[in-house]
Amino acid sequence: MNNNQFNNILVVKHGSLGDIAFSLLAMASIKKNFSNATIDLLTEEKYINFLKSSNYFKTIIRDNRRGIIDSLKVIFKIKRNKYDLVIDLQNSKRTNNYWALLKLISKVKINGSRSNCDIQYVIPSQGTESPQNGLYNQLKLIGISEINKNIDWLSTNISEINKDNIILMVPGVSKSGKDKQWSPDNFAKLASSLEKRGYHICVVGQKSDRETITTISKACQKIIDLTDKSPPEVIYSLAKKSNFVISNDTGPGHIAALSKSPILFLAKDNVIAKSNLSEYTNGYYILGDTMQTISVNYVLDFLNDKKLINK
Questions:
Q1: Measured in whole angstroms, how far is the alpha carbon of residue 266 from the centre of its chain?
Q2: Whether residue 173 sits in one domain with residue 285
Q3: pLDDT by residue (tens digit) across 84-113?
């Protein structure tokens, strides 16, 4: 496909922070391959400032995925902007409904993996490919054959963190993902053991993770506590500075994984987790039938065996 045939492009991405993390290299690749086109983004309000920093997009359209009236406003705004290509990186039932209506009132071409897409990637059965690889295969259909892995725009100044031998911990999960969380007590025991080996423990999280991080803090002499001070760019930059990262299968962990620093994921043993974690060449993972079956001693032995700790 000739990339020059598309001059006005809309990229669509909603979802969790993990979903956003999975799509960042795809966004970078779209920008690089359609360098002469005008590219806009449709996303949720909570990601606008973050993704604006990428400088990939001329305009970012807010879509908080609420009622039918708001959805209709979004669809008619897309029509008014006269895009010649929509790249749907969300591929949800909602966006598929958007395209069903849009096709009635517009001739825009739509690239995605849902039934109402004109340039459709047919995804294999769940767990067969990682979310990232699915997006890369989708983009091949519009002439993008090379993935741009340069996302240095995510780096930010963290000079106030002036320690060496840092281990970054991501112990929190979303409210809906509590079954994916390794227990705060286990994180605390692990942090204490690693601190005694000479490492500095840095912990990131949201306000909702305060109780978890307090548990870790009480078990250690002193942690670097960045609760509610760790937007994605800080997590990414801290991960680059760290010896390695330990995380649940959660959005901030997937942001950290993009840093290419070694990262150990602790996750449930299912096809979704395996698919989510399979893309990272810098990644390790320990899977359990439940999170409670993963012991602190097993994690320490794993870190030793993989030579991730050397003290």
A1: 16
A2: yes
A3: 999 999 999 999 999 999 999 999 999 999
